[in-house]
């Protein structure tokens, strides 16, 4: 089916595409959208299918579908090559994009994400969570996980940030979130593909991330040839929001090393 994809497209220059995680929307990248669009980049941040202002399609959304949606959007925007980054589920979508159309990707940014296939226990948990979100909506879940998404000290010290993250979660469509959870439960194992990555890659993680701990980022770093690793101190699962200055600095340094766009 045809869907309407909501997105921000700001700045001019080589393209930097950033993919949000679950259960968020494109507003999680606002600090990066503003920062890098003022520094010579065309920054494109979409709402994924089922999230934010993009069409909700109930059922099951595999990572391949998310990746093809991004490909379609970038075709429509006449973007050939681009730097592609994503956080958490967004990072897994990035890996799927690299599997499907690596020739278009200049560099990868993998933030707070894992390349591994879901475990059997994880598959059950995601399927059960999908049903729970359909029953309850997102608010109870948002209440439960806020201090895992954002480090507890940051929730206390940065109430506006905490409210932004909580609002993104509680505003997400239960049908869209459930479809993504069912799709992620069946995601492939990207570990065998990592050795074949031939573009510059930055791996970023918050040092307090419980969902994708530092060890998982170190695993990615070790398996992607030539990858760089940045551990952001004082952040949990959302270092781009919790430690914006540090995250932007790390990303800017990485982008500055890239060859000129063709």
TrEMBL record:
PANTHER family: AB HYDROLASE SUPERFAMILY PROTEIN YCLE (PTHR43798:SF31), MONOACYLGLYCEROL LIPASE (PTHR43798). GO terms for molecular function: hydrolase activity. The keyword Transport does not apply. Keywords: Hydrolase. InterPro entries: AB_hydrolase_1 (IPR000073), AB_hydrolase_fold (IPR029058), AB_hydrolase_sf (IPR050266), Epox_hydrolase-like (IPR000639). This is Alpha/beta hydrolase. Pfam families: Abhydrolase_1. Residues 14-243 form the AB hydrolase-1 domain.
């Amino acid at each position: 089916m045809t869907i309407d994809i909501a997105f921000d497209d700001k700045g001019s220059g080589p393209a930097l595409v950033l993919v949000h995680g679950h259960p968020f929307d494109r507003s999680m990248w606002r600090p990066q959208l503003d920062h890098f669009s003022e520094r010579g980049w065309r920054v494109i941040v979409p709402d994924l299918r089922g999230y934010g202002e993009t069409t909700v399609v109930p059922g099951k959304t595999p990572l391949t579908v998310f990746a093809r949606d991004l490909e379609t959007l970038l075709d429509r925007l006449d973007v050939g090559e681009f730097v592609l980054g994503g956080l958490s589920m967004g990072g897994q979508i990035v890996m799927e994009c690299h599997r499907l159309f690596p020739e278009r990707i200049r560099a990868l940014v993998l933030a707070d994400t894992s390349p591994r296939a879901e475990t059997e226990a994880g598959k059950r948990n995601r399927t059960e969570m999908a049903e729970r979100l359909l029953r309850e909506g997102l608010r109870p879940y948002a209440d439960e996980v806020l201090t895992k998404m954002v480090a507890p000290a940051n929730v206390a010290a940065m109430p506006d940030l905490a409210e932004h993250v909580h609002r993104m979660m509680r505003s997400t469509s239960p049908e869209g979130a459930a479809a993504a959870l069912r799709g992620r439960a069946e995601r492939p194992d990207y570990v065998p593909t990592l050795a074949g990555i031939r573009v510059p890659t930055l791996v970023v993680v918050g040092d307090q991330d419980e969902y994708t701990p530092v060890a998982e980022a170190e695993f990615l770093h070790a398996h992607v040839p030539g990858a760089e690793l940045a551990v952001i101190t004082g952040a949990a699962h959302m270092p781009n929001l919790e430690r914006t200055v540090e995250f932007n600095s790390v990303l800017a340094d990485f982008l500055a090393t890239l060859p000129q766009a063709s």
